[in-house]
Amino acid sequence: MKRLTDVRDLPDKDYDAWFKRLRDDRYEKLLTDWSWWRRDDQQPPAGDWHVWMLLAGRGFGKTRTGAEWVRAFAEATPGARIALVAASLHEARQVMVEGESGLLAIAPDARRPDYESSLRRLTWPNGAVATLYSAAEPDSLRGPEHEAAWCDEIAKWPQGEAAWDNLMLTMRIGARPRVVATTTPRGVPLVRRLIKEKGVAVTRGTTASNRLNLSPRWIATMGAIYGGTRLGRQELDGELLEDVEGALWTRELIERCRVDADSIGKPVRVVIGVDPPASAQGDACGIVVAALLRDGRVAVVEDASVEKPPPHVWAQAVAAATARWGADRVVAESNNGGEMVMNTLRQADLTLPVAPVHARAGKVRRAEPVAMAYECGKVVHAGVFSGLEDQLCGLQIGGTYVGPGRSPDRADACVWAVTEVLKLSNQGTIPRVRRFTKL
Questions:
Q1: CB atoms near residue 6 (< 10 Å)
Q2: What is the pLDDT of residues 31-82, one digit of tens each?
Q3: Most CB atoms closer than 10 Å: which of 152, 193, 302, 346?
Q4: With bands split at pLDDT 50, 70 and 90, how would you rate the model's confidence at 128?
Q5: Are residues 56 and 189 in the same domain?
Q6: Using CA atoms, how far apart are residues 302 and 289, in angstroms rounded to an integer?
């Protein structure tokens, strides 16, 4: 039988004729025959590798590739023990198991695994078992033994290296333990480390590689908006971009400042920084929550930013963040229409302590002392905030911004929030601020 790569470029008339010649039983088999559907860049590499890392742009087909590799291994290895690891258990379930390209969707009816969500476990008819794990809980990987693993989006794992190291210590059974890691590339320490590690085979790919299965309009739109940009090179072209030369923040610095969200305890003070859109049709609204911890450090605890929202939406997002964290104050930049910003916040259905601030220095100049506080260990990230961190790493000394988006709205909101919390930590008390009352 011809492979898809042999027939997909046939003229429509010849393709239709070939398809009609398929008998029903051959067609049913074809639907679940991954060796026919896959592209060459989705085929496992040759050679004696122990880790296959697939670095590719969004829409490449990474999830399908990982799921099909696990399916093939499970069906060929009765009684196998397999690990499925994602950034969180929710993502492991929603993407790796129940997603459109997940293990349940791709399995033939006769060989579909039984999924027990309460036990985080899939069991195939031949006794092979796959267990779900969260990279946010590295210690959950202590104790089990595995002979195969699929790790999804390792570049966004909250405790990447700790989770990876614990997983690798479990890969101690079977004749040839192997791990497949699928991810959109980001310059985090774990990805950079694996690229250089012996026994790691790397496959690279782009969004365009899977163009036949993607919306042509979506591909054209993404290319028009992000083509040639740093974000597009990373998210669409699958490039692993190194740190921007002269950037105030580096990936290594942020990773050094990362802590587990459950380890920070109850905050002493909480401030929400807001960088409002310049107009109702503006860009994203940066909304970042920073907290003063009992040990004197400042922790970024949430990025609640909203993409291109109308005014009432971003105002409600600020109000919701205030309620979630019991914030002491909201610091909102008021350069672009100060009264508009204040009126918008006033209409949100909560009592908000608001301190309007006017930016007299440029964004990068305001960010410099905050970056220095990171360098000194005074600021930590309680979790992973990919969008915010990408923007921080795009701020360069000298005033240039080369990160994703036209404006570093998330980064600016972070700078306002952290700056205010640093002031509060020095004062020891909360000065009186202007408060809005419910209308």
A1: 11
A2: 678 887 788 899 999 989 999 999 999 999 999 999 999 999 999 999 999 9
A3: 152
A4: very high
A5: yes
A6: 5
Encode pLDDT of 316-369 as tens digits: 898 899 989 999 888 888 655 445 666 666 665 556 567 766 655 567 778 889
- DSSP string covering 404-420, please? SSSS-HHHHHHHHHHHH
| CA pseudo-torsion sign 404, 405, 407, 413 | negative
- Which CATH number does the domain housing residue 317 bear? 3.30.420.240
Closest CA to 308 of 288, 281, 286: 281
Length of the chain: 439
- Domain holding 76, by residue range, is 32-235
| Domain match, 126 and 220 both | yes
pLDDT at position 109, please? 84
The answer to which of 27-31, 48-52, 186-190, 288-292 has the lowest mean pLDDT is 27-31
423 within some domain? yes
CATH number at residue 59: 3.40.50.300
- Domain match, 267 and 215 both: no
Query: What residue type is 304 in one-letter code?
Result: A
**229 plus 267 within the same structural domain:** no
Same domain, 273 and 343: yes
The answer, as to whether pTM is greater than 0.85, is: no
Using alpha carbons, select from 332, 330, 333, 366 the residue that is nearest to residue 350.
330
Distance CA 219, CA 205 (A): 15
- How far is residue 11's CA from residue 22's CA, in Å, rounded to a whole number? 17
Residue 382 phi, psi dihedral angles, 5° rounding = -90, 75
Angle, helices 189-196/160-170, rounded to nearest 10 degrees? 50
What is the number of structural domains in the chain?
Answer: 2
